[in-house]
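Input/output pair, single chain:
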Amino acid sequence: MNRTKRRMRWHPLALSALPVALLVGCGGGSSDAGLPQLSAATPGTLATCAELASKFTHPNTQISLAEPVAAGVLKRGEVPVAAHCLVRGEMFARTSPQDGRRYAIGFEMRMPLAWNGRFFYQANGGSDGEVLTAFGGGGPMPTTALQQGFAVISSDAGHAGGRDLVFGIDAQARLDYGYQAVAKLTPMAKDLIASAYGKKPDRSYIGGCSNGGRHTFVAMTRMPGEYDGYLAGAPGYRLPLAAIANQFGAKQYATIATDPADLSTAFTGAERALVSAKVLEKCDALDGVKDGSVQDTAACQASFDFQRDIPSCSGARDGSCLTPAQKTAIAPIFSGAVDSKGNKFYASFPFDSGHNAADSSFWEFFVSTNIDPAMTAMTWGSPPVSSTGFSGAAYALSTSIDTMLASVAATSGVYTESGLSFMQPVNPTNLATLKQRGAKVMVYHGVSDPIFSANDTASWYEGLRTNNSGDASNFARYYPVPGMSHCTVGPATDQFDMLTPLVNWVEKGQAPDSVVAGVRAAGNVAGANPDLPASWSVNRTRPLCAYPKVARYNGTGDIENASSFSCK
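Output:
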């Protein structure tokens, strides 16, 4: 599930030209009463590197490369990375009894010469299948975990091939992708760190966005004792159901597309811009100032009415209106996908200012008829559909929603765990084990995300609050990002560092009430945000507030500066 130009990656772990100090987590409460306070990590120095190729041993693990990397050889954007040790290898190499292909859990680990005593598991996105550079990240942050001194691991989650989505034919590859690869890699990585530095990491963190957020949610429930900090962005923690919901959307769009071969003709860019503009018109000032951003999402949903506030076409479609047929087809996508009996199986989507973000059409029109069908049919469905002659568009538009839902809930033969079982976290609103250890959770989600609903994440957090006597803020916090699309872009302050505040919360007891975010304008080393409004300052910052608080204008001060807003 990602843009082809991103090679099936869910988001770039971006750098920023903004000063790090500007983007570091704010706020602070004191130590969380009644919960253990974990001690701070202590630094270490790399003692060995090249020797690891021959000397490091771990069950079912083969090291293929271990070599020092001089400072500046690796760069993140134009920023040089400090000297470190690069180790590559694989675990559990085998030949599949189902498809005869070779499988292994491929990985790379980068361990800095000057180590901060911490380990970061880089949970990658999409369908995995590629060992991405082990930079580490906490969202589109100004510096990566590796640059901050973490030892970082990245993996392909048990299968190679990137966009080759037929790996689900292999029963074990399914399980590795779902949860077992992280469980197998984590103890190995900690042993490798011990071999390189003479001690295991003092503190361990895991994070990623999209499917990487799902990996993090799964680790929260299946591995509550292995990590001290969990950082999840746009968590597709109900990924199979979200994918089926996206195909539900494709079916709706197909009923109004003027070109059956191009679903984007159902809801054009101009029409998406119209909806975004009307949402802004109705909701922009609800936070106390008109600034091109909707901070109070809940108030907006109560104020904005899709049928009433979007003009209805009396003549030809020209981008200034929607036809009654369009409204009828599009409204159920926002209200939440349903099965044939009208039962909702996935969350509603909030109305926000970023529905015409640069990546929206990709998610709703390409992914829904290409990637989601293949994953539903071959990766999560039991038994998997044959790849021979498979057409994603035909599957998405012709297969009933009921059939899709039944398939991902089923088991058969060697496929002893259903797609819902191996992909989803176990009881994600019960995090008592990690809570009582003193571990912490931070989650962020773009309110304009077109593929995973921010409402779904808000519902998860409400469930977590309910299971913790109405307040989970002493160990878990959720930060909606107004206007942001899937992990990045959209008319949003989409550049922020949540890893530093997470470390400060875990190791110092400094609870982050908010995190300051900035924009990515021209010249930013991560590239400019294509959706950045021309009316915004290139220096705009905003506080990302811990849910359910929202950023409200103080009534005075520069509207481009986060200091002029308070979380209320």
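Residues 135 and 275 are 37 Å apart (CA to CA). The mean pLDDT is 93.
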